[in-house]
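Thread: octanoyl-coenzyme A complex, take 2
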Amino acid sequence: MTEVRIHEHLVEERRGPVAWLRIDREEALGALSRSLVTRLGAYFDELHGDGEVRVLVLTGTGKGFIAGADIAEYDRVSQAAFDDYQRLSRRVFTALEQLPQFTIAAVNGYALGGGFELALCCDMILASERAKFGLPEVKLGLLPGGGGTQRLARAAGIRFAKEAVVTGAFYPAQQMLDRGVVSRVCPPGDLAEAARVTAETVAGNAPLAVRAAKRLVDQGAQMPLDVGLAVEQQTLSGLYATRDGAEGIAAFLEKRDPQFTGE
Ligand code: CO8
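Output below.
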């Protein structure tokens, strides 16, 4: 498999049902220029309708995952241009969050500002021991505009989110693990392998079930418990009627690997 450069600072590699998307802007620690955010948005839109890809792994290069918005582009632009960039990033971040595929952020280094916020839009975060997370926008006289005040509070609780957004502190990966934001911390050289194993495990499970399970957890967070439980039962009932539902049960009883087709 070979990497395909889809933007000056973005490379994609397909490995069967897993798409790897790597921010390749080491000299600026992966900072998100407007053109990079625009291309990311187009990529997520394309991926949304791509039935071949079941898992997306998003990662960075060198010591930067994504060190936030490109601060140089914030300098002396008009108010309208600034606001337009924020609207664009909100749309793009939401597009990532709403992908039907399972998404993994493999955070290799600095995940700051918009970079942390982008990781928070993924379903799972794996991190290198070298990764650092933070929302330092207050140090620029701003505040997180990529969902940080909202998604970090939902992921790690209101008190910690307030601490993070008002201090702008950088947190080591281990601390994010302790707070449940990160699922696993590994030595830098093991991060890609940890992401590969997780991605292939998810991609090997029944596609309709994986998509439905992800959607249910997301939707459930917005619903009263009794409504969420009712939707869960309804969805499960629908999966039992699928070909993969029958195949998974038969394969277990016949002591063989299931052959899922996504039907
Ligand atoms: N934007 C532009 N360039 C950057 C950024 C950035 N966010 N971060 C680092 N760089 C550049 C540096 O300017 C430097 O370039 P050069 O070599 O040309 O001087 C290069 O990357 C390497 O960085 P450093 O020399 O600073 O490396 P250090 O190891 O000394 O420091 C730090 C690393 C601590 C990460 C430091 O670079 C830093 O503090 N960066 C800024 C982090 C930050 O404040 N991020 C928040 C930005 S605001 C934001 O994200 C708002 C989100 C809005 C919504 C989402 C939009 C997409």
